């Protein structure tokens, strides 16, 4: 049986269903397997996935974050959960693309949603919560990749030295509750409001990580980045704070690249992770070059 076959069988047999169901595969998941299921006149999304220790993904945390995000009004309702499976109400709408996110009118809707995530979810989160510190994640990935003799092993020392320098540049942080995976595909527009889904990596973090991730994952223009930061903070940010933001943006891209390096070895999903790694390494190198150039210009 393949991973998908096991996931399908698990989704079919969940005790939540009132009748016989036929789960339909839902594309997009690259750390879990997702289905759409019709039952009792409604549609639901089923997320099947075990803990992924190499990525720090703990399903108890994902479930608690998803439940808190629903109560905060930013994510669909979790109607059933058990170890390795979660059922949510289906949201009829458009899954965003990076091109959608780059539209100014869409950014004007995303930033208030992000502010709500950061400030409101902690009021509703129940139970133990994780912290997502990207520089710890990078160091952990480097150890995993070295032990597993990754094809990228020869690059790890250089990447870690860069990560250490970026961590120093970020400095002290303010702590908020972060989503920590702001890919365009994790936003759904139902025509009336935006929803944010997929809380696999949720945890307390600096707001700079979500802001940097939103910008880097969706290739915002420099003008849009300035607008995003001013809108989020309610004021123009100074040169030093912008430098800290740029450092975190670089770290976000490096994390995405190293996440993919680990997936190359550990994932059984049918996805071209080598190509994804190379794409994100290129984006990281470009952002790092821009960061260094700006540093020289600032003096």
Automatic annotation (TrEMBL):
Database matches in InterPro entries: Kinase-like_dom_sf (IPR011009)
Keywords from the named record: Kinase, Transferase
Record's GO cellular component terms: cytoplasm
Pfam families reported for this sequence: Choline_kinase
BP-aspect Gene Ontology terms: phosphatidylethanolamine biosynthetic process
KW NADP (keyword) present: no
One Gene Ontology molecular-function label: ethanolamine kinase activity
Protein name in UniProt: Choline/ethanolamine kinase
Source organism per UniProt: uncultured marine bacterium MedDCM-OCT-S04-C448
């Amino acid at each position: 049986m393949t991973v998908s076959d096991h996931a399908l069988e698990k989704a079919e047999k969940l005790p939540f269903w009132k009748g016989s169901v036929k789960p339909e595969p839902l594309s997009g998941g690259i750390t879990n397997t997702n289905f759409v299921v019709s039952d009792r006149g409604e549609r639901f999304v089923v997320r099947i996935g075990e803990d992924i220790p190499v990525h720090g993904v703990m399903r108890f945390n994902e479930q608690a974050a998803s439940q808190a995000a629903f109560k905060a009004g930013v994510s669909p309702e979790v109607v059933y959960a058990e170890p390795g499976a979660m059922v949510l109400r289906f949201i009829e709408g458009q899954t965003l693309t990076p091109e959608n996110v780059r539209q100014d009118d869409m950014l004007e809707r995303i930033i208030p949603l992000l502010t709500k995530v950061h400030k409101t979810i902690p009021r509703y989160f129940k139970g133990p919560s994780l912290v997502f510190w990207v520089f710890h994640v990078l160091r952990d990935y480097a150890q995993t990749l070295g032990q597993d003799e990754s094809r990228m092993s020869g690059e790890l020392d250089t990447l870690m030295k860069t990560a250490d320098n970026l961590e120093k540049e970020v400095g002290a942080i303010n702590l908020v509750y972060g989503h920590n995976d702001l890919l365009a595909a994790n936003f759904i527009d139902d025509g009336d409001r935006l929803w944010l889904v997929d809380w696999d990596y949720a945890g307390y973090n600096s707001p700079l990580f979500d802001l940097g991730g939103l910008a880097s994952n969706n290739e915002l223009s420099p003008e849009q980045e300035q607008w995003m930061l001013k809108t989020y903070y309610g004021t123009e940010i100074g040169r030093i704070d912008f430098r800290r933001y740029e450092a975190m943006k670089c770290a976000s891209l490096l994390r995405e690249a190293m996440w993919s390096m680990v997936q190359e070895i550990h994932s059984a999903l049918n996805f071209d992770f080598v190509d994804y790694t190379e794409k994100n390494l290129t984006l990281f190198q470009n952002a790092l070059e821009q960061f260094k150039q700006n540093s020289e210009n600032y003096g």
